Amino acid sequence: MKIQLSLGKFIRFFLAFLMLLGVLTVQAQNFELPELVVQGLSTVSNEGEDLPVFTGPGRSFYRSASGKAAISSSQRVNVYGRVGDFLLVEYSTKLDDEDISRFAYAPVINVANGESFDEIIFSEIPITISYFAALVDAPSNLRSGFGTIEIDHRNATTLATILDDAGNEWIYFHSKGFSSVNNAHLDARGFFLSKYVTFR
């Protein structure tokens, strides 16, 4: 008898759990998140010097590549749009002798025709990120994740989405984390696969 009651409770709990998952899925589908789209190509200039770039629009944000992320002067970049005095750009670089891309923010004044790009309108939807998700500075399954910052997974914000070449959907997010390079908590932006998101 006790076994039957326990089994009945388990079934009711399991059904309630499935219903909750269904509600979360419907809620996620109802969100119309903006999509990151390339607005054009341009060239970075910094008087012949590499330009330091950060994961967000300002020097107070986390800087990838163990705090050394930079774009070479005269390098071509994909521009996704403007955020205040900065442009969200994608640039090519090397990691362990492999060609990769990174997303970062470059000052408008350091990008040719920087003022001509449109402002990006981001969403601000609170989310929780699964601890199974790899958080990276570009939407790529080939990357293992940020190495020198511990991102707060429980208090993050969805900014936009983007599709990679294989059709996988990625969430572009904003959160905070402790940087071992700076020995401080910093704001950070990056990407993770959308299957690891829970909307709050």
- How far the N terminus sits from the C terminus, by CA atoms, comes to 39 Å
What's the mean pLDDT score? 89
Care to count the β-strands? 12
Q: Name the poorly predicted regions.
A: 17-29
What percent of residues adopt helix (DSSP H or I)?
10-25%
Give a quick account of the main beta sheet: strands, pairing sense, barrel closure: 6 strands, antiparallel
Structural category: alpha+beta
Number of domains: 2
Beta fraction: 35-45%
Q: What's the shape?
A: globular
Task: State Rg.
Answer: 20 Å
In short:
The chain is α+β, with helices and mostly antiparallel strands.
Describe it for me?
The protein has two domains: 40-116, SH3 Domains (SH3 type barrels, Roll); 121-199. The protein has two helices and twelve strands. The protein has helices at 2-30, 64-67, and strands at residues 40-43, 51-52, 70-71, 76-83, 86-95, 98-107, 125-129, 149-151, 156-163, 169-179, 184-193, 197-199. The strands form three sheets. Strands 7, 8, 9, 10, 11 and 12 form a six-stranded antiparallel beta sheet that branches. Strands 1-4-5-6 form a four-stranded antiparallel beta sheet, with no helix packed on it. A two-stranded antiparallel ribbon has the order 2-3. It is globular and about 70 Å long. The model is unreliable at 17-29 (pLDDT under 50).
